[in-house]
Amino acid sequence: MLQSYASPLERIWYYVFRILCGLILLFLIVPILVIMPLSFNSDSFLMYPMSGFSMRWYEEFFGSGVWRTALKNSMIISPLATLLAVALGTLASVGLVRANFRGKALLTSILISPMIVPVVIVGVAVYLVFSPLGLSGSYTGLILAHAVLGVPFVVITVTATLQGFDYNLIRAAASLGADPVTAFFKVTLPLVAPGVISGALFAFATSFDEVVVTLFLASPEQSTLPRQMFSGIRDNISPTIAAVATVLIATATLMLLLLEWMRRRNERLRTARP
Question: Which of 10, 74, 252, 267 has a beta carbon 3.0–4.6 Å from 224's, enabling a disulfide?
């Protein structure tokens, strides 16, 4: 907020900085906004100006067997990979926060490395490991690979939530006769639920949007929505891809709104505590 006693130079920088941030945001978001109207174009080409309004590309998306199969595969792989990533990431976070041991920083770096290492390297490594095990070209292999990519997001969000956790609550539960498993589900998990849900949303978005690892592992029958879009762009650019992209953008926007709502709700709950 600009203070009333700010100097003229500070006032100029205040407005210049905000205009610059607005231009950068516009530069980043315009390519996304440009593709959305094209999904309602009646022409068979991705071009402006649009000759008319039509829902034919959405009808083709939801009516085509190829696209329906890709959507079905994504809706099978992404939720299961998210559940696995949440389970492993949450347990790993609890162990890392509560325990102190030599090599803790190294283990944390290994856990979050899939989000730092280039995804092409991850894809090659997963393919080389999964192929001898017979997991290449299977739903199990895809789910495991996508879960590996989602675990870092769960670890980061849950670990951040656990930083302010009061472990006296665990001791109180133990004094009342609760075993560690009961204390975890009755005390720890409800309190860190915002971090778990945030990590789950990030893991789901990562899995749902993943294409590189899928190209290495998936068989033709296991083509996901991003992979089908990649194939469509490579072989024949159809406005159906714009319709699919619009659906994905709307889904990502809803997830971000949900995350923001959860963040504000968590802040209100913290400030409301005595």
Answer: 74
**Over 60: is that where the pLDDT of 179 sits?**
yes
Q: What is the pLDDT of residue 6?
A: 64
- CA 77/CA 147 separation, integer angstroms: 9
Mean pLDDT of 131-151: 88
Tokens of 24: 């950068």
Nearest to 128 by CA among 203, 213, 208: 213
Q: Is 123 helix (H, G, I), strand (E, B) or coil?
A: helix
- Do the beta carbons of residue 202 and residue 115 sit within 8 Å? no
CA proximity to 211, closest of 134, 122, 135: 122
Mean pLDDT for all residues in the chain: 82
Separation CA 72–CA 90 (nearest Å): 27
Highest mean pLDDT of the ranges 49-53, 115-119, 160-164: 115-119
- CB atoms inside a 10 Å sphere around CB 135: 19
CB-CB neighbours of 249 under 10 Å: 15
Task: Give Cα separations from 203 to 152, 165, 253, 274 (angstroms).
Answer: 8, 23, 15, 34
Structure tokens at 251: 């889904």
The full set of domains in the chain, from first to last, is 66-272 (1.10.3720.10)
Three-class DSSP category at 177:
coil
Residues 22, 37 contacting (CB under 8 angstroms): no
